[in-house]
């Protein structure tokens, strides 16, 4: 009998789908996309594309009919539509239930809190009185967050006073945004743990990643993270427990805060994640390949780093007049960083690519990744390198 290539359908066609498609090639896995627009990053490089909105039932069905398993590049899908696909016998990984949890920060706090995972103090906010009560119990400043739809810090507001909070609530009311409040933790650093799980139960976790965020957006990744072995093992245990508890299938990132030496769960993302981009060159199996293996129920690969230090820097767009792609030649000539462009126009603050360096020490990896990034941007980024410059 002729061999039938496994086919993975991806809802969404951004950089994550693009890098998944890249990882699918050597394993001869076919990828079909549901792209909102033919110019989307992944639609530029994948031949099999269904054009349609991710919340269009017909488009979703057209995708599902063409593949063995449906997976995701983003969380902007209606879990009820996914549940319909599941009911019709389509494989959807992560499941509609995992996707529903990932879309809703209130629900994550509730379910993960009930399960006993460590969390910052938090409360649902439906009126200013809820903020006043939370502020009285935990003090200001506080963090207000959109329960749904936020990313890269859009949907996260710091409030020093009740008046600040009122302004955020007014804005949220105008847009129909549902909010929650959290205590603002003083952060030692932030971590992410990537863990992959197959339907048959096999689990594989990557070493904890230090994620350096500035203004709510991830700028830099560092492996190994500057934490103790004990804390790292605890974070890995929590991420693995969450994956098992929610019946995760695929790769999932769990974001953590470390505050005064203590670990707190921030949020989870049930898909390849920005915090895992270092794995393309920096780990034995990239997160994208690992995700494909997991959703197809194939054996998972080694998660060991390929060097003693791995650093990844996100390329943030500065505007159309400073497109880093124009300096590709200079960057390739001058430095050792591995360059990834996502096929996106460089609007300010938009992630348009990343650079990874693998070296004998983390310091050297950071220096190499920064040198390549500086060449691509033509200068040190406008906002400087990260606050805790080393
Ligand atoms: N409770 C908190 N205490 C301190 N910093 C926070 C808190 N919540 C969010 N932040 C900061 O804001 C960033 C973005 O928040 P997050 O909830 O992860 O939103 P997003 O969905 O945009 O990633 C975090 O990575 C962290 O730097
Ligand atoms: Mg986050």
Descriptive key words:
single chain, 390 residues, alpha+beta, nine-stranded antiparallel sheet, five-stranded parallel sheet, 12 helices, 32% helix, binds adenosine-5'-diphosphate, binds magnesium ion
Write the layout of secondary structure elements.
Elements: E1 7-11, H1 15-24, E2 30-35, E3 49-51, H2 57-65, E4 69-72, H3 79-87, E5 91-92, H4 96-102, H5 105-114, E6 122-125, H6 128-138, E7 142-146, E8 156-159, H7 162-175, E9 179-183, E10 189-197, E11 203-205, E12 209-214, E13 217-223, H8 229-245, E14 250-259, E15 262-269, H9 279-282, H10 287-295, E16 309-316, H11 328-334, E17 338-341, E18 351-359, H12 362-377
Parallel strand pairs: 1-2, 1-4, 2-3, 4-5
Antiparallel strand pairs: 6-9, 7-8, 7-9, 10-11, 10-12, 10-14, 12-13, 13-16, 14-15, 16-18, 17-18
The site of adenosine-5'-diphosphate has 19 residues, from strand 7 and strand 15.
């Amino acid at each position: 009998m002729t061999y039938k290539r496994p086919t993975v359908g991806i809802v969404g066609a951004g950089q994550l789908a693009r890098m998944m498609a890249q990882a699918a090639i050597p394993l001869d896995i076919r990828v079909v996309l549901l792209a909102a627009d033919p110019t989307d990053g992944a639609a530029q490089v994948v031949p099999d594309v269904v054009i349609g909105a991710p919340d269009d039932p017909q488009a979703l069905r057209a995708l599902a009919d063409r593949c063995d398993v449906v997976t995701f590049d983003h969380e902007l899908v209606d879990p009820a539509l996914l549940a319909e696909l599941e009911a019709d016998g389509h494989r959807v990984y992560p499941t509609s239930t995992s996707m529903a949890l990932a879309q809703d920060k209130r629900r994550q706090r509730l379910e993960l809190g009930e399960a006993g995972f460590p969390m910052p103090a938090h409360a649902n906010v439906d009126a200013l009185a809820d903020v006043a009560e939370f502020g009285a119990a935990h003090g200001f400043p506080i963090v207000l967050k959109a329960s749904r739809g936020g990313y890269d810090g859009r949907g996260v507001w710091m409030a020093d006073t009740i008046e600040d909070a009122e302004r955020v609530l007014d804005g949220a009311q105008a847009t129909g945004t549902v909010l929650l409040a959290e205590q603002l933790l003083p952060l030692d650093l932030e971590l992410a743990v990537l863990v992959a799980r197959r339907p048959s139960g096999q689990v594989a976790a990557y070493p904890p990643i230090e994620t350096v965020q500035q203004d709510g957006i991830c700028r830099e990744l560092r492996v190994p993270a500057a934490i103790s072995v004990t804390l790292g093992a605890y974070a890995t245990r929590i991420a693995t427990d969450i994956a098992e508890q929610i019946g995760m299938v695929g790769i999932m990132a769990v974001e953590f805060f470390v505050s005064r030496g203590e670990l707190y769960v921030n949020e989870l993302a049930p898909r390849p994640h920005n915090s895992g981009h270092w794995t393309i060159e920096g780990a034995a199996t990239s997160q994208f390949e690992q995700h494909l293996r997991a959703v197809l129920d194939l054996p998972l690969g080694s998660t060991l780093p390929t060097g003693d230090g791995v650093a990844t820097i996100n390329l943030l767009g500065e505007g159309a007049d400073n497109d880093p792609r124009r300096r590709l030649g200079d960057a390739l000539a001058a430095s050792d960083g591995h360059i990834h462009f996502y096929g996106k126009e460089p609007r300010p603050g938009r992630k348009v690519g990343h650079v990874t360096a693998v070296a004998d020490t983390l310091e050297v990896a950071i220096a190499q990744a920064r040198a390549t990034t500086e060449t691509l941007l033509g200068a040190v980024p406008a906002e400087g390198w990260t606050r805790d410059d080393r």
